[in-house]
Amino acid sequence: MMNATALTDRLAHFIAERALPPGRKLPSERTLAAEFGVSRSSLREAIRVLSSQGLLVARHGGGTFVAGQDSAALTDPIAEALLPLAPLARSDAGYWKDVAEIRSSLEGDAAYFAALRANEQDRQRLRQAYLEVSTAPLDDLAAQARTDAAFHLAIAQASRNVVLRQVMSGLLRLLEISIADTLRQLYCLPDIVAALDRQHRQILDAILEGRAEDARGHANAHLEFVQRRLLDLEEAPARARRAASV
Length: 246
What we know:
This protein is mainly α. The chain has helices at 4-17, 29-36, 40-52, 77-82, 86-91, 95-117, 120-135, 141-158, 162-178, 180-187, 190-208, 212-245; strands at 56-59, 63-66. A two-stranded antiparallel sheet has the order 1-2. Helix 6 crosses helix 8, helix 7 (120-135) packs antiparallel against helix 8 (141-158) and helix 11 (190-208) runs antiparallel to helix 12 (212-245).
């Protein structure tokens, strides 16, 4: 049975391989579900993930479309170049550290430029993305991960740097693939979720108020916090074994 991550990758490849242009409507949910051998609810989740990354646009009652050129198009060469890394992200337990390291070097700049360049549409998108991540149900881990990624992608989009946006989209996807189980553990901890919400709010406020250096600093501090907690979760089983052996 195909899991959610594999299905999302499969749908992305389906669109890229067929070079569907921006604005092209996807086949119906029924047709795609039959094509991939999955349920329609599973397919909808994959569509939601790609929509949160700016790759698809779902119109209520009107179907799903490949995003326009102003969004992160699936046929972009940067996004395409990162797709082959997905199998490595799944097979190498330490791969996420490389992804996180590169992400850290970029996301502070994304927040910095967003504070300088965001227009009113960007700011409204950021407010909405923050509202969604801050109100995502604590018992819906998929929604927690999806809305968190969407918030960070909204920051990258507000930077008005197309290359930065595309690279961030690919890195967030690889990070989700490589540490899906650990991310689920992270979102299960109420104190962690509360801390993440405070950090997201600090980043948002700095961007909305045009405080570029503060936005960069808050973004960097946020990522350092997340990486420390992920390392703690990764090392917890080994610590438990050592404690039990004493």
